[in-house]
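Sanity check

After download, print the first record. It should look like this:
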Amino acid sequence: MIMKIFRLLTQLYPRGYRSTHIEEMVFVLGKTNAEHRDLVSRVGFAIREMAGLVWGAIAAWQMLLVVQGSHHRLVRATNINQLPEDVQDAQVLLDDAIEGMTFAIAEKRFEHARRYSNEEQKARAALREARSRYGLGDIGAS
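Expected structure tokens:
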């Protein structure tokens, strides 16, 4: 029962975060939950972890909104749905790399953050190239 509640609360997290972290979180919660034998210990654990899941989701959304806010300043002059498909694809790759890097830093997973940073640089170059093919200018020019 408690694991169903934990899994339900994980749906509060942004999609990108869920796709990379939730299975591990649920596994750890299940393993730790099993270690609590008596009722008082289980109830205390459940309350602490449910609160932690809610606060964690709030923090994840705050980080995502900061990233999206800075991204929207870069492309605010153009509605992404009106861009050519290869430009849209390059933008999505850049967004995913930035989101992954932000979450990796927040979780102090610096090796992962470095990998996402490298992906971000490649994605920015690909986006710059795709935009130049259509005369859209650089992503920072607006």
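If your output differs, re-run the checksum step. Summary of this record's structure: Residues 30 and 69 are 35 Å apart (CA to CA).
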